[in-house]
Structure formats: C-alpha cells, structure tokens
Amino acid sequence: MVDILPFRGVRYNRERSKNMTRLVTPPYDIVSEAERDIYYSNSDYNIIRLSLGKEEKGDNKENNRYTRARKFLDEWMDKGIFKRDGKDSFYIYEQEYSLPTGERRIMRGFFCLVRLEDLDLGHIYPHERTLPKPSEDRFKLIKAVRANISPVLSLYSDRHNRVNSILRTEVKREPVLKFADEEGTIHSLWMLQDDKALERIVSGMRELELFIADGHHRYETALRYSREGDGSNKYVMMLLVDMDEGGISILPAHRLLRNIRRMDEEELESRLLEQFDLEIFRFNDNELSQRKKMFDRMWEKRDEHAFGLYAGSNRYYILTLKDDTIIDKEIDEDKPRIWKELDTVILHSLIIDRIFGVRDDGSIRYEESINFINSRDAAIQAVYEKEYDIALFLNPTKMSQVKNVAKTRTRMPQKSTYFYPKPLTGLVINVME
C-alpha cells in the first residue's frame, strides 16, 4: 500500500519574491560548478544556497555548507522570504516543455508526502544504483536542515483514472504560480485543499505502486534519517507523475570514454564485428548529413540493440547486435533476462568493458574514464577536440523497461535513464515540523 499525505508546504512569499526565475534551479545533481555560481549571483535568496551550497575556506564541523543551509533556511523563514502555507495541500505541478525534436509536451504531477518504506519490500521500487559519496552528502544536508529541499520524482500507473481525473479538473482553475524559464518551459502550480478531493487521491494511491525515477539518493538518505534521526520523520516529499499519460519523457545519456585500450580502425572494426553488424557512414565535406543519417538509422533500429559510435576519424558507425542469443552467452550476470536485454547493459558489457577496457567497478579510474552526456553534438565535439577518445550513442530506455526491471528489484546500470523534464527545486519544500 502506498501511503501519501497532503502537507503544509513552505514556498517563496510572492509578496517578497516577484521573479521566480532568479530563485529556483534544476535539481542539484545536474548543476555544474559554473551554473552554481550563476545561481548564487542571481539572488541572495536563490534556493541553491540550501540545495548545493558552496564550500568555504576554514569550514569545520560547526560551520560548513550544511550548517549554513540551515542558517539560511531559518533566516529566510524569519524574514518572510519563505512562508509556510496555512492548510494541508497537494501541490499540482505542470511543465509545458519542448523535446530536442521541437515537440511540445505537458508533464503533470503533484507534490505530496509519501511514507518511507524499505526498498527491498513494499510498493516503492527503485530502478538505479546509488553511490556512497552523493548519499553521504545528501544525508548531511537532510540532517542539518531537517527538510526535503528537492522532491523525489516517482511514477505511477493510474489505469482507472481515480487520481488523474481529479488533477485534470483542478488544473482548469487559475494557478497560484505561473512563469516561463529561460528555456521556454512554462511552470504552473495549483494548491489542492478540498478535503473530499484530498481523500479521494489518498485512497486512489493506496492501490497503486511507485517507481522512483529521479532522486534515489534523496530517498535512501531520507529513509536513513528516519532510522538514525529522532524518529519523527517517516515521510519524504515526492512529485508523483503518471507514467502512462505521455507527459514525462526518457532521454538517453550517451557515453564518452578516455583512458581506453589503444587500437587502430582496422582492429576496432574487427573487434566490433565479433558480436555486432557494422554500418559505416563515411564523410568528407558532408559530415552533417552523414551524422543525421547515422542517428536516423539508429532510431529506425531502436528495437534491435543498435548503438552509434564516433572515434574521431571521418566515419560514423552503427553497431547492431548480431543475435539475441549473444545476450545469454556473453552476459553471464545472475540477473533477470529483462535486465540483460537493456541497451545500457549490452553496451557496458560487450563494448565499454570488453573492447575498451573501461570496467564499471566503482573505482576512481572508472569515474575518470567515462562521462555521461545528453547532447549528441556536444559528445561528437568532445571527441573531435580530443578531450575524449570515443563517443557512444544509445536510444532511450523504454518506460515499460523501467517498470518491468524495477519490479524484479534489480537496479539498472548508472545513467540508464534521463527523465525529462526535471522538476524545479524551490517551488515547494517540506520543512519537517
């Protein structure tokens, strides 16, 4: 049973905070150091000071970026920059956004509190692994501020429309907040406080399951804090989105490699041909058209375990797995078949590890040898400028794969999914009472 609650959210006081674009940010884990500096300069009250504060010279146990986050939170509450809503609410959130193709979509969900439970049991399913360093960082933050600054993004499937029908009705009202960001995404927020509607949603969600999309570290640290803290925190703030409505998208995270085994083109092609069929797109003056052909062809073969590759020469490659039986023969992990069929598993097992010698063993060498990037063009540029040696391109993981793999309680490889759009940090926070 999924147990959710409305809550009295803490939000920016609109009488004191007129320009929301200067106060909110993307989730902390996709913010670079350069972007953090920009958010710091945008406003003295930008949420980045709470979610991803800067380290300072002389930091110690008593004075550090976590204790400063708590200090900022207290000061902003005292000054009226932040204001707690007077009544328990669900906060309905819409993002009208553009995909890289230019297609416009609307993602709709709602902020609520979800009762924490062990991820090896119950009705909340993870799909990706967590890493010790970011987990410890988030634990220090929640312990210091006693608040959920960023939501965990989770998905549900409401086939009977018990929840979605209410959300669709509510968004016909005027939102309490609406603004467009610099990328043209329109953000809208509604407060749902009607007791009967709240209870209908609470009741409807009890019959469903949740699949964590983004925020695995936040969830696991909230669970740890509920056990190691004072015991009062049994819930975590989530943004819940229906996976079947088509509003949320999964984009691929492409791979960049360096520190790899050296080989010439002839050897590379020979190694690849052991398990993959190759299509080669050579170019001289027609590089852009060949680049487009490669990506178009890759999409056409999206159900055939097809990958793109660029190694810095005048050719692009499409690699297509020769035979599905290779999956069982060569990927001998003691994992479910549906896990072994993931493109990210095939890519890492048969190409990144076996051919290029970059093994996902959690070591510093691995972290220094691989990078994950969403922009195909930026990945190609990074190889062209010799910052990296190899760019590898994937088609996006399917929503059904996320659900079905998660149901086996098996974690996908790192960065198997890039859910889009990302909910903004700073629209609503949960300050524990």
Question: What is the domain total for the residues?
Answer: 2
* Shape designation: globular
Low-confidence stretches: none
Radius of gyration: 23 Å
State the major sheet.
9 strands, mixed
Mean pLDDT: 94
Strand content: 15-25%
Q: How many β-strand stretches?
A: 21
Helix percentage range = 25-40%
Number of helices: 15
What is the end-to-end distance? Answer: 25 Å
Q: Which class of secondary structure composition applies to the elements?
A: alpha+beta
Short synopsis of the structure:
By secondary structure, the chain is an alpha+beta fold. 33% of the residues lie in helices and 23% in strands.
Detailed description of the structure:
The structure is a single chain. This protein is an alpha+beta fold and 433 residues long. It has two domains: 4-249 and 420-431, no CATH class; 253-395, no CATH class. It contains 15 helices and 21 strands. It has helices at 33-42, 48-51, 65-79, 132-145, 164-170, 195-206, 216-228, 265-272, 287-300, 325-330, 337-340, 343-353, 364-369, 376-384, 399-407, and strands at 4-5, 10-12, 82-84, 90-98, 104-115, 124-125, 147-148, 152-156, 177-180, 186-192, 210-214, 235-242, 249-251, 254-257, 276-282, 306-310, 315-321, 370-373, 390-393, 418-420, 430-431. Strands 1, 4, 5, 6, 8, 9, 10, 11 and 12 form a nine-stranded mixed sheet that branches. The chain has a six-stranded antiparallel sheet with strand order 15-17-16-19-14-18, sandwiched between helices. A hairpin with a 5-residue loop joins strand 4 and strand 5. Helix 3 (65-79) packs parallel to helix 4 (132-145). The longest helix has 15 residues, at 65-79.
